[in-house]
Structure formats: C-alpha cells, structure tokens
Amino acid sequence: MAQKKSVPELKHLDHVLVSETAIKRRVAALAEQINRAYRGKDLTVIAIVNGAIIFTSDLLRQLRSPLRLDCIRASSYHSGTHSTGKPVIVDNLKLDIKGHHVLLVDDILDTGNTLSAVHELLRAKQAASVRTCVLLDKKERRIVPFEAEYVGFEIPNEFVVGYGLDFNERYRNIPCIGVLKSKYYAGKI
Ligand code: IMP
Ligand code: MG
Predict the structure, then answer these.
(1) Would you call 16 exposed, middle or buried from its count of C-beta atoms within 10 A (0-12, 13-18, 19+)?
(2) How far is the CA of 75 from the centre of ligand 2 (A)?
(3) Which residue lies with its CA nearest to atom 9 of ligand 1?
(4) Which residue from 108, 132, 167 has its CB within 8 A of the most atoms of ligand 1, so it is best to mutate?
(5) Are 94 and 70 within 8 A, CB to CB?
(6) Domain region containing 54
(7) How far does residue 110's CA lie from ligand 1's centre (Å)?
(8) Overall average pLDDT of the 13-29 stretch
(9) Which atom of ligand 1 has the smallest separation from the CA of 52?
(10) Contact between 7 and 175 (Cβ < 8 Å)
(11) What are the residues whose beta carbons fall under 8 Å from the beta carbon of 153, sequence distance 6 or more?
(12) Residue 153 Cβ contacting ligand 1 at under 6 Å
C-alpha cells in the first residue's frame, strides 16, 4: 500500500497533544454516546464553522438518527491566539429549529463566550432541546460558565492547531492536534 503522504506543516508542530488514532477512537465513542441518547429521535446538528468542519464531518457519518445539518458562523479570534471577548455570530441558519432537538458542535470550548452566545440564540428560537458536543475542552480558560454534554478531550491551557483548529486560518488540515513551535506564533500572541 502506498505510504500516506504527511502534511508538510506537521513540521511546524512542537509536539502532538492528541494523535490521529486517539481522535478516531474518541470520535467513535462520542458518536456511540450520542446515538444512545437520541435513539428514535430526529436530530438537527448545528456546526460552528469553520473550526468544527472536520470534527463534524467525522462525527456525522457515525450518527444513526435521521438528521439535518446546518452551520452557523462565529468568530472571536481575529488574529493571534487571544480571544477578542464577545464573539461575532452571523445568524445565517437555513433550518427552522423550533420544536427540534439540536446538537450544537464546535471544535473547542475555551472561554465559553462563543458557545454560551450560540446556545442562547438557539434556545431563543425555541428548539425542543439544545445539547453541545465539543472535541476539546480547555476548562482552565473558562470566563463564562458553560459545560458541554459531550466532550472529546480535556486539554491544558495551550493554544492548539489541527483537525479543523487554526492559527491565523492555517493548519486546519493537520490530522492530529498539536502545539506549534513558538517561532510560528512569534509576534502574534
Ligand atoms: P471561546 O469563545 O473563547 O470559547 O472560543 C471558542 C473559539 O475560539 C473556538 O471555536 C476556536 O475557534 C477558538 N479557539 C479557542 N482556543 C483555541 C485553540 O487553542 N486553538 C485554535 N482555536 C481556538
Ligand atoms: Mg471556532
């Protein structure tokens, strides 16, 4: 079998925090948990783009409920690794979620600003229920109290890239999750 070509920017990583294999296993376990919780129910999955694109695509293909997919855009990081506080949420949802069970998916729960704001917006649209699934949780960084029902990995307070997560819009295509060498963050933190 041909050797899988690695992403050249893998060389920019100082270290890997979560391997590709660990992600695969954990996503399967999360899907299993979600399948059990929503058995016999119709589901509306709402992904926060761009960060949640890769996680959502892997998770979605393992969900067994009849489901619909929509995306919402939120950005709090305009550059660098520091949140600008209040996120900008573009409410461009196409689906009517009133009376529907919603699973909100994001890449990472950090300060809690984004997810608490999006969660509130979905509740205001009178969803029957809203639960949250994140791949990563940086508990130490929480400013707004918010907990997700489904969490892939709790990680320490380090800025990570890969598997959909970016630094200045780069590195989303790295298949694992890791921390960049400091020179690549230089001057932008
Ligand atoms: P919060 O609003 O501070 O919880 O931040 C949520 C958003 O910030 C996430 O959806 C990510 O896009 C971004 N973010 C937070 N921490 C990281 C990180 O370590 N790497 C890349 N993006 C991050
Ligand atoms: Mg994001």
Answers:
(1) middle
(2) 7
(3) 108
(4) 108
(5) yes
(6) 21-157
(7) 5
(8) 98
(9) 10
(10) yes
(11) 18, 22, 26, 135, 136, 137
(12) no
8 vs 2: CA distance, rounded Å:
17
- Check residue 75 and give its pLDDT: 82
Does any domain span residue 5?
no
Direct distance between the N- and C-terminal alpha carbons of the chain, in angstroms, rounded to an integer: 42
CB 83 within 8 A of CB 110: yes
Inside any domain, residue 146: yes
User: pLDDT per residue over 79-116, tens digit each?
Assistant: 566 666 678 898 889 999 999 999 999 999 999 999 99
Residue 119 is assigned to a structural domain of this protein: yes
* Angstrom distance (rounded) from CA 33 to CA 147: 17
Place of tokens 């058995």: 39
Count structural domains, the chain: 1
The residue written with tokens 């307070």 in the block is 157
In this structure, what token pair is assigned to residue 112? 């809690």
Inside any domain, residue 166: no
Catalytic, 106? Answer no
CB 70 within 8 A of CB 95: yes
Q: Is the shortest distance between the CB of 178 and ligand 1 below 6 Å?
A: no
Residue with CA nearest ligand 1 atom 19: 159
Q: What is the CATH number of the domain that holds 35?
A: 3.40.50.2020
Q: Strands 177-180, 160-161: parallel, antiparallel or unpaired by DSSP?
A: antiparallel
pTM: 0.94
Can you tell me which residue has the tokens 């029957």? 128
